[in-house]
């Protein structure tokens, strides 16, 4: 594995873990506002909206940091794009 692919794989793995709690919080705050499934008891709607709004930017950034290199590595594996030479 060349150095770039190694760094990309580390990026995919490191960004996957913070994504997990972030996506769960995003869903939770969404369901709190929605009032479905009894989640509205966890927090009031206004605070849920504040948190939900705060989570958008980090979520979008992390999804991109996680999925763009993951897709790039997958495309190399599938042979859609050429493997780079060892550096
Ligand atoms: C919010 C959505 C997502 C979450 C919470 C998430 C979370 C994770 C976690 C926790 C891992 C394990 C990291 C490790 O092995 O240390 C992982 C690995 C991986 N994720 Fe995601 N992921 C998400 C979305 C995606 C998307 C959209 C893609 C691709 C388009 C993707 C592709 C991958 C791949 C290919 C791996 C395996 C990397 C390896 O070879 O070890 N993930 N993800």
Task: Explain how this protein is built.
With 87 residues, the chain is mostly helical. The chain has one domain (3-78). The protein is 76% helix and 0% strand. The protein is built from two helices and no strands. The chain has helices at 3-34, 45-78. Helix 1 runs antiparallel to helix 2. The chain is elongated. It binds protoporphyrin IX containing FE. Protoporphyrin IX containing FE (HEM) binds at residues 9, 12-13, 16-17, 19-20, 23, 63, 66-67, 70-71.
The rough form would be described as elongated
**Total count of helical runs of at least 4 residues:** 2
Mean pLDDT, rounded to whole units?
A: 94
Describe the sheet with the most strands: none
The arrangement of helices and strands along the chain is: HH
Oligomerization status of the protein chains: single chain
What is the share of helical residues?
A: over 70%
Give keywords.
87 residues, mainly alpha, 0% strand, binds protoporphyrin IX containing FE
SSE topology:
Blueprint (H helix, E strand, L loop, with lengths): L2 H32 L10 H34 L9
Helix pairs in contact: 1-2
This protein binds protoporphyrin IX containing FE (HEM).
How would you sum up this structure in a few lines?
It is built from two helices and no strands.
């Amino acid at each position: 594995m060349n150095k770039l692919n190694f760094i990309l794989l580390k990026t995919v793995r490191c960004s996957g873990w913070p994504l997990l709690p972030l996506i769960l919080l995003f869903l939770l705050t969404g369901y709190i506002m929605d009032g479905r499934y009894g989640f509205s008891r966890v927090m009031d709607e206004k605070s849920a909206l504040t948190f939900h709004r705060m989570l958008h930017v980090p979520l979008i950034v992390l999804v991109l940091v996680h999925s763009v290199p993951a897709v790039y590595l997958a495309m190399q594996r599938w042979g859609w794009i050429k493997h780079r030479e060892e550096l």
